[in-house]
Each structure stands twice: as structure tokens, then as C-alpha cells.
Amino acid sequence: MEIASGLLSSACQLACGPVCQQLNYIRKLRENEETMQSEWRTLSSQKNDICTNMNTGQVQYGKTSTEAVKDWLKKVEEIEKRLNSLDSGGAHHMCCKGFCPNYYSRLKRSKKTMGILCEVKDLQEKGKPFAEGKNLFIDSLPETSSGLPATTLHGTSAERKKEEILQCIMDPEVSKIGVYGMGGVGKTTIMRQIYNQLKEKKDDFDIVMWVTVSSVFELAKLQGTIAEKLGCPLSSDETSRAMELSQALRRRRNFVIILDDIWDGVSLQTVGIPEDGNGSKIVWTTRSRAVCHSMESDREIEVKGLTREEAWSLFKEKVGGEDIVSPEIKPIAEQVARECRGLPLALITVGRALRKENQLPVWRNALQELKTSNIDQIKDMGKYVFGSLKFSYDRLSSDTIRACFLYCALYPEDHQILVDELIEYWMAEGLINEEGSIQTEKDKGHAYLKELKDACMIQRGWRDKSVSMHDLIRDLAINITKEQFMVKAGLGLKESPKEEEWVESLQRVSLMRNNIEAFKGQPNCPRLSTLLLRRWEPVPIFFGRATFSDTFFKHMHNLRVLDLSGTGIESLPGSLSDLMNLHALILTNCSKLTLLPSLAKLHKLRQLKLNGMHSLKELHHGLENLVKLRHLNISHGGWGSFPSGVLLKMPCLEILLMESSRWRLSYGCNANAEDSSTIGEIIRLKKLTNFSAEFADVLAFNSFINKARESELLRNLDYFLFALSYKNEGHIVENENMEKVTLPATANIMEIRDYNFIQLSDIFHWDDLRQLIYCKLEGSKEMKWIGKNGEIVFPSLETLRLKYLHSFEGLCKEKPHEETLKNLRKLHIYCCLKLKYLIPNDLLVNNLQNLEEILIGHCHEMEDIISCKTSATMASLPKLKKLILWKLPALTSIYQGKLVCDSLCTINIQDCPKLKNLPFLMNNVLLVGMSIVVSEEWWKAVKWADPQLKELFQPSFEIIDELTCLMIHGVGSRRVGHTIRIGKLDPHEFDLEY
């Protein structure tokens, strides 16, 4: 009975449970709906927050949502649809025309509401990580655990270059940086180091990206690579890809994109890389500076080779260390390393080829191979080094540019190639088409040379207006031309190449800088167009006279360029007279040559250089036949006189140089017939643009200037240089009635040497000096001031050089006029023994604000550079870059107060024992390029106006010996001779010897 009662009770409970639950659904419908609506609002808010974060990530940062969050949002949307459909059924909750509840409908609705409520709560729980920003996006830029593999930088020069590039990257004013240099110099190695460093920091840039571009540029591939690194999908439409990529990059706060190995200018806009700053940086490496220009870089940084010490250190490492380089091998190994000329790629390749090699003959052979440009036997040199450099050669824009490049290999190794001379060779060879004027063709030559320099195939020389070839680049050129060129320049040969070496295929031969005394035989070289036999320049070194067999030039009918400068020849073979295709005959400094063979057949001759030929007695017949002659130079030599009318038979003459020749042109009763005829013919030369000559006196010079003005010759002259004697006795000029020198209105340079005068107004009218840009005064014993009475002095002058002025006391005696030296950039003072104070404070404050360079030497009484009679404690030279002081034993002060020099980057102080303080203040310290050369003792003892500068400049401090100091300053022996020189030249090229 009890068992039956229990079963009945359990059955009743089971039956009543569902009934009660059903009744609760019906009874709590409204309550359930309100709960559900509240939870839905919470979920909806959660969804809105997540959508906002997603939108921000997608729009601003180009991020891609994860599949999980997309699925979550989809489920939320489905819930919302079900809720909407649930609301539309609310009218069916009543029956009997609304007077009685429809319990079935209410039960059904309440169950659905509770089901949705459970799902809503579940989605709320699953959405919490999304609301916290977790798992919302796929990583937009996959981060690697380590950077790019990069070799160690060798030497401090590469480290300094790395720091210079990093400074530019961190500079907010710089957004585009071009890093250029020749192949194998280490650009990529430095940039990999920078890339890895930026990746490690992660604080400065959101994205640091490395993209290798290489020689074959493919736009779609480059865009795809960048997009892949961003995690940004791109469409297939070419016009849309750049816009999509640009938008994706703009959404980043800032980025660094490094484009490695660009060969041609890339339009960043076409790629889709924004260029409008926003803290982002684009850096690229290239072998061509022209690429940097075309891409409008804000900074261009050249990477150069290693120093000799750094190169030797790297080379030793690659060959196996000190143990391999025995005392016997070391001298040869050092020479081998030097032959690589600081190129890391070559040092590594040659070093590995000789790794652990301890046989002396092998080392000697390697050195010989490198010296003779025959490096086929050195393992991997052709593959890695020459292969890399040859690619740069192949990428030059035209065959003409390549031919111009190969021509440079005719010069000796390490030679400083004068730019004008090289271009003149190109012109004579026909590599530059003859069109317009010589200047037009030279301009084209400079454009060719710029392309070669921009491509790092030619380097800037250490001499002004010169270039040079890296040894390995030269080796490349010689290997390319070994079938057409014979280059034995600078080898110290005493004998001419054997006759069998003069093969028919030769086009160019260079035997310059040798000591060959006899050129024998009858070379059969019908294709030869250039023959360079010159010995040395600018000062000829005579090892003996050179001779030629009578028939030496017989089979060289195609010869266009013949240079015999400095060869010491006493006579030339008659076969030279038959070189009817000759365009340039250069006999500079052939001072033993007394006669020339006939020039009558040389109808195509354009250039004839006879300068420095002091022994030439007369010119053989045929000068009148040179109807196409454009350039004639007889300066520092010459012969008796021009035959009457001969210059008028040279209507193409553009350059006529007669300075320091045997002529001293004169007028009036003292003039001879030849002088008068020659001057008249010169004035009638319509194409003359470059002219130099000497005049016997002021009257002759002024008379010529007046006649030249009437004929408009002066207006047509682009360049001229005139020398004249003012007063042969050389005593003080005191006669105010004496005729003053008339300066042509276009003259911009003036030099006066060894004339005694009190001030310049003794010789010139002050107004004539206003246009001068360059002025050098040397050797006057009485001159005390540039201008002593406050005259307007040199308002246009940029360079002022004063030497051996034994009574000189200063630039200005009275308060200077406001225009005095206001444009002066370079001030050089040397051996002015009574000079105590150079620059008065008034002149400094009001006029010298453009001064960039001060060089002062051997002024034994100088006490102050800048004298200040007022209580001023602060002054400024905002553009001063270089200060060089040497041999100033009495100097105690540069300036008594503090001197602000924000541009100063070179300080060189030698033998100034009383100078104990440096007054410099610098608001903008730029350490890149800073050079301080002083003695170690002085550096330790000197006091700075700003003590922190000494610590900042410590890494730039170096010691230098006096001999090197003199080489840097360019101090040479004093030249004498009573001369006034007046000209229209490039003032930056004039009189480079200080």
C-alpha cells in the first residue's frame, strides 16, 4: 500500500511539474519579454561597440576582421530578425474578439521569448572578448621574431653613415631619403642594420617594412609585396590598386618603408605610397644619384668605401686573421687590400679567395693580377664583383654614355682627371656631336659626366673640377675594351710597345705617364682614333727627349686625338702632316720643340694647344688652312707674330688664349705693325667667346677696352682674362692725374700682384669695383686698408684673398658703409705681418653675415680675429662653416664675447699657443660632417664658452701634422711679378692655389 502511494505521489509530481512550467510561461509572458528586451539592449550595445572598434580598425588601420567575430555578428543579426518576427505576432494573444486571452498563443510566444533570451545571454558571454578588443582582427603585419640577416658593419665610417641615416629618419622635417653609392659599397648592409634596429624598438613606427625592388621593376609585384606585408587585399584592377594601397598606408599612424636596390626612378604615387609626411618615411638604396633626384628625395646620402685601416681590418678577417698574414706576406697583402680601394664586396671576395693561403708566390700573383686588371684568375671576382659592376655599366642610358665611360679608362690608375680636358677629348673623338658653340657641347659633356657620377661609375676627385675612377671600375672598363684599347698608362715604361702589339683592331691607345724615349716602327692601326702619349701635368717632368720614327703616324689616317704633352720632343715626323682627320693636336709643355711640321692638310683640326712651348721659333706654313679651328692656345709661349690676316681665315675661332705669351699688346706710337694688325683682327672675330692676352701698359689696355666696346666684342665674350703692367718701376702710386684702369662692366675677378699703392682707389674708380666677385691682393708693401675713408667697398665680393701685405692693418679704418663686403663668403689672409685686428665689430654685426670660411695663417702680430671696442658680449656668424687658423703666435682671442655659429663644421687650429678660449655657441649642433683638427695638448687645455660642445665634438677631434696641414690649406710658394689681372671667369675656379 505504501509502495502504491509513493508511486502515485511521484506520478502526480511529474505531471504537475510540466503543467506548472506551462502555467509560468503563460503567466510570466510580460516579465519574460521585459527581461529579454533588457538583455537584448545589452547585447545590442555590445554589438555596436564591437562594430565601432571594427570600423576604426578597418578604416584607420586597414585591419581585417577574424572569422569568429564575423560569425558572432551574423548570429546577432539572426536574433534581431527573430525578435522582429516575434513582435509582428503580438495581435494573436487574445480570442473572442479580444475579450478573452488566447492562452495557447501566449504559451507559444513565451517559450520563444525564453529561447531567444538564452541565446542572447550566450552571445553576450561570447562577445565579451570582442568587446575588449581581443580576437577582432587578423594581424595586419605579421611580425617575425627576428630581423633580416645582416653582416657586421666594418669600421667607424660605416657606423657614422648609419647614424647619419638614422638621424634623417628621426628628423620630422624629412620624409624621403635616398641612400646611394656604387655597387658593393655596403648600402644594403647598412640599411639592414637600420631595419633591424627600428624593428627592435617598435616605439617610433607602427610598421617597419623591407621591400627588395631589384633591377627588373614590376609595379604589380611591388604593390603585391607591400599589400601582403600589410595584410591588405588588393583588387585586380590596375587603377584601383594604388588607391587601395595608399588608403591602407594612410590608415597607419606612421611607417617606414625601405625600398632596396632601385635602379630606375619609381613614382611613389603610382605605386600607392603616400608622400605627404604624417611622420612616415620612405628610404631607398640605389646606385644612381639621379634616381634620388627623380624621386625628389629630401635628403641624399652617399655611402663611400672603407678607409685604408678599415679595409685592412676586414681583409685580414676574411683571409683568416693575423696568423695567416705572416711578416713575409704582410706587405704584399696590404697592397692587395689597397687594390680593392675600400670596396667591401671586393675585399670580401678577394679575401675569401686567398683565405688561409700562406704561399708567397700566390700572393704575388694575386697582386699582379689586380694591378694589371687581369683578375680572371681570382676566384669569384668575375662572378660577384665584376658581375655586379658590369650590371651598372649595362644600365647606363645609351651607347654614347657607355663610350664616354670607357674613355676614362685611358687615364692611369688613381689619376685625377680634369673635367674640361676629358670633355674636350670626348668632343674631338666625336662622342659629342658638333653643334652650336663649344660651350653648348661642353654643357652636354657635363650632362654626360653627371650621369656617370650619378650612377657612381665616376667619382668626384679631390682636386677641384676633377673626377676619378675607382680602381675596380677602371678594371671593369679595361676588361670590356681589351680588344679595342691598349692601356699602359702610368706603368713607368721606358720602351714603346712592340710593333706586333699595335694590332689593326685598336681604336684607342694610352701610354701616358711613362718615360718612353723612342717610338719606333710603323704601327698599322687604321682604326686608331685616340693616341695619348702625354707624360704628366700640370708641371712637366722631363725624363729626356722623346723621338718618333719618320713613318710612325703613316698608317693612322683615322686619328682624331693626338696628345704629346710634356714629352720633351725636339721635332715631329713629317707623317704627322698627313693626319687629315685630326681634330685635336695637343703639344702643351713641349718646351724643347722649336718647329712644327706643316699643318696645311689638317683641314679638320678643331683644337690646337701650343701653350708652354717656350722654344717655338715660328709656325710653319699652313696655319691659314685651319679654317675649322675653334680653339687656339699659345699662352706661356708662342712665337714671333701672327702672319697678317691669318686670324681672319679662322672664322670658327671661339677660344684664343695668349696670356703670358711673347706678345704684350700695345697701341699708339709704341705699337708695332704686327700688334696693331693682330688686335684689329681679334676684334673682328665674330665667334670669339673666350680670350686672354697681355697688355704693355694701362694706355694700351684702356684703348683696347674702348675699341672692344664699340665692336661689341666684350658683350660676346663669356670668359676673358687680361693682364697688364700698371707701372714697371713698382713704386708707390701717388700721382692722382695718372690714368686709372678701366674695368669692363662684365669683369668679375681682379688680382693685383707686387704693386705698391695705398688703397685701391689709387688704381681704379670705386664704382668699377662694385661688380667684382673675386679679389686677390698680393705683395704690396704700402697698402694698409682695403678702404680707409668709409668708401663703399665690394658690395658683390664673395672671395677676398690677401697675401704678403706687409703694412696691412685691417679691412676698414673708418666705420664701414652698410654695403661693405655684405656678400663676402670666403676670407683668406696669409703673411700680413703687421695685422693685429682683422674684423672690426661694426663690420661683423652689419655686413659679414654671409661669411662661410675664414683662413688665417702666418700673421705673427695678430691678437684678435674680431676686435670689439664696445661692451658687446654677443655676436653671430650664422653661416660660418670653416675656421682655419695656423701660425698665429700672438693670437689671444677669436672674439672677446660669445660667438653664435650654428653652421660651423670645420675647426682647424695649429700653432696658436696663446689662444686658450673658444667663444662658440651653437643652437643647432649637427655632428654629421664635423671635423676638428688641433694638437692634442691644446685640445686638453682649451676652454669653451659652452663646455658641452667640447664633449659633443670629442668624436670629431683628430691630430694632424704640419705637412698635412699645409696640404689642406693649399699654401704654396709665393709667385712674383708686377701684374694686374682682370677677367670674367667662374670665380670659384679662378686661382685655386691660395
Automatic annotation (TrEMBL):
Name of the protein described by the UniProt record: Disease resistance protein RPS2 protein
Native organism: Dioscorea alata
